[in-house]
Design a protein that fits this description.
The chain has about 350 residues and is an alpha/beta fold. It has 12 helices and 5 strands. Strands 3-2-1-4-5 form a 5-stranded mixed sheet.
Length: about 350
Amino acid sequence: MDRTVEQRYAIKFCVKLGKSATETLPLIQQAFGSDCLSKSQVFRWHKSFKEGQEEVTDEPRIGRPSTSRIDENVTRVRDCLNFDRRLSLQLIAETLNITKTTVFRIVTDDLNMKKVCAKLVPKVLTDAQKNMRVLRCQELLEMCENDPNFLNSVITGDESWIFEYDPETKRQSSEWHTPSSPRPKKARMSKSRIKTMLIVFFDVRGIVHHEFVPTGTTVNAAFYLEVLKKLKKRVTRCRSDIKNAWKLHHDNAPSHSAFVVNDFLAKTHTPLVSQPPYSPDLAPADFFLFPRLKQGLKGKHWGTITNIQAHVTSALKDIPEKAFQDAFQAWKHRLQKCIDAGGCYFEDF
């Protein structure tokens, strides 16, 4: 049975039970969900049945029947959309010399199509890159299965810009208001030019080492090598139980994969946990630490780089150990999600 006709029978049944139009509407919405008739349609049919109408079908209309939604026009509209998926209804109507309303009906009813926005992803992955993501995830999961404590000795890290002012998100700026109060407004803002780069390394127990890149300094292979030397000394002092068995995880940035860096890791017998290319969704720093850290910075002016660095240092210390443990557990779940998705991105960015 047609869903529209089915709802009209339901409205007629509510009228027979003595329900008012106001009482009938939420019942219809609950029963039919997103397919529910509009409020005006429910009220119109409720009034008609209450006035004695018995038929649930539309009355015959006077005039010539519409011939715009014929198979030929459906095919023409389909061909237009196959040529350019971004065409507007108005442009299709003008091109084919049929009404905009008819084009809308053909697109939504006959072709069962709707306009959707493109999903933002870090990169449009090739099949080879997807396969590589799956392979790397399978390798890492296999290591975790063979050794349940494998991730406990992994130290992961990355670098990111921290801005003096970072606009708050729409969700952060939302407020509770009554229906009669005006909607709040805010001006469109952009990130400030004052910024500092943070380099941070952490494991399942918390922050191991962090530092800020001096203003005007580029994070090249030579600079990153010095950071790793500091990290190694820090591990010896703060993680003495794993100082001879820790593993490093970082992404594939040029400074991270340079020869001098790999040579240093080989000479110091530091194993490297591979990171799939173009995979911020599989890096704990990107899906856990940086978003959490920057959330508290948004919408505030910190004035100077010194103030930014002081607040970031304090915020890093305030992150509880349980949060890091949960992040490493989430890392394992994300590896499986990537495999299940065939290497495609499995979340919104």
